[in-house]
Amino acid sequence: MKLYNTLSGQVEEFVPSDGNLVKMYVCGVTPYSSTHVGHALSYVMFDTLRRYLEHKGYEVRHVQNFTDIDDKIIQRAQESGVSEDELVEEFIGDYFDTMDALNIQRASEYPRATREIPRIIDAISGLIDRGHAYPAAGDVYFRVTSKDDYGKLSHRTLDSMIAGARIQVDENKEHPMDFVLWKGAKPGEPSWESPWGPGRPGWHIECTAMSLEYLGEQLDIHGGGQDLVFPHHENEIAQSECYTGAKPFSRYWMHNGLLQLGSDKMSKSLGNLVSVVEALERYSPDAIRLYFLSSHYRSPLAYSDEGAAAVERSLERVRRALIPGNGAGAEVEADTHRVRFAAAMDDDLNTPQAVAALFDLARDINRGRDAGQSVGSGQAALRELGAVLGLTFVDRPAPEADLAATPFIDLLVSVRTELRAARQFALADQIRDGLAEQGVSLEDGAQGTQWQRQTTE
Q1: Mean pLDDT of the residues in the chain
Q2: Ramachandran class of 299: left when φ > 0, alpha when ψ lies in -120 to 50, beta otherwise
Q3: How many CB atoms lie within 10 A of CB 13?
Q4: In terms of residue numbers, what domain contains 353?
Q5: Burial of 150 by CB count in 10 Å (0-12 exposed, 13-18 middle, 19+ buried)?
Q6: Which DSSP category does 233 fall into?
Q7: Is residue 231 reached through a cis peptide bond, with omega within 30 degrees of 0 on the bond before it?
Q8: Do 447 and 331 fall within a single domain?
Q9: Do 121 and 247 have their domain in common?
Q10: Residue 225 falls within a domain, yes or no?
Q11: Which of 87, 155, 238, 455 is the S-S candidate for 77 at Cβ 3.0 to 4.6 Å?
């Protein structure tokens, strides 16, 4: 198995440091608003990576944090007239509800910044003791000049960082790129006691403290969106390796491309969001997952209703392949598709090619069943490979009106079958055409006529 490593800029063979155990840390959300499909893209991708590693026989210890104290949380809580804790609990609940709906497995641990304060303070103290950080006026800053290879993840130099950034002048900093590890308390904001006075942790240090606490000094995989490469992950590497004594913090750095709505990245700050709840009102969880997985994880992806609706329609072919068959002919061959699937996933998690192998298997099952072949082993392979991608093949719930129409559609299909048997093809075609006008398509095969509703969103 090979994975692209952002640190080296190359595709590398994946070899965990501890035999069969894979230690994976994925940066989580800041819970101050509803979980959106941009979040979902990242977590579907890392869920699929974890599923495939487990499929290959690895044990995965997966840690994902919640940044539950932040300027945006404080601001949103004040605007909403609730406490920071109430706001955070609401949106952590929203996160779990929507990720569960998308069939994303729960991480091994979900540490929160506010519950790791002692560990964070220990890490900051260690950095100060080693000469990599310094207190100033109630804050504590990381000294970027103390790390010779600072910038190695984003492949930037300090000079280029300064030239390309709008940096607010801070007389307390030794260097413009020094970043905060501990923020001194401000009136009306939550704070914790520390050796440097009351305050709260900076954004970057929480991930170092949590990964050290739950996964040890070296990770196998550190993941997140491409927008986290700099400054967040760059700063994580610097502070973590300075704390542990330059031991490589993570062996592989993986970053997914970002979801776009129109020409812009989908983000809370831009306000161009589609919540997961909104997406699930229109499309099945399988369709949303498959929409993301049909593009390579490192590529940007544009989200659109037209694209999601097309994926929903294409899924009907796969679901139809799982209709039981009782053919007595030769078994539909699945091994070739298994090999293609594994080869694609081993090639830097090439899910578009893996999805293609899955659809080709579904096509062969449909053809084989219609030709009277046995399809049981092919269907078992389809379910197994689909599960690696987190697909359940469960259709989205039909609206009440559709449920009420189902027995009448079944009756019309039965009448059409009798008309075809009586060679009254004109009348049979009228039923087919009338159903098509109502968004119901028919497909005739050796096992009878199957019908499905066409997605029109």
Answers
A1: 92
A2: beta
A3: 8
A4: 313-388
A5: buried
A6: I
A7: yes
A8: no
A9: yes
A10: yes
A11: 87
Q: Between these two residues, 187 and 450, which has the higher pLDDT value?
A: 187
pLDDT at 457 over 50: no
Residue pointed to by tokens 């994946």:
14
Residue 171 structure tokens? 């007389």
In a shared domain, residues 380 and 412: no
Angle between helical axes of 234-244 and 203-215 (0-180°, round to 10): 50
Do 192 and 198 meet the contact criterion of CB atoms below 8 Å apart? yes
Whether residue 17 is contained in a domain is answered as yes
Angle at 300 between CA 295 and CA 301, to 5 degrees: 60
Burial class (CB in 10 A: 0-12, 13-18, 19+), 167: exposed
CB 74 within 8 A of CB 84: yes
Question: What value does the CA radius of gyration of the chain take, rounded to a whole number of Å?
Answer: 26
At 176, is the secondary structure helix, strand, or coil? coil
Same domain (yes/no): 114, 253: yes
Please tell me the pTM assigned to this model.
0.86
123 with 51, same domain?
Answer: yes
Closest C-alpha to 449, from 408, 423, 412, 403? 412
323 — phi, psi (to 5°)? Answer: -65, 130
Residue whose structure tokens are 């300090």: 158
Q: The tokens 């081993």 sit on which residue?
A: 346
Q: Are residues 39 and 87 in the same domain?
A: yes
79 CA to centre of own chain: 30
On the question of pLDDT at 456 being above 60, the answer is no
How many residues are there in the chain? 457
pLDDT tens for 221-235 read: 999 999 999 999 999
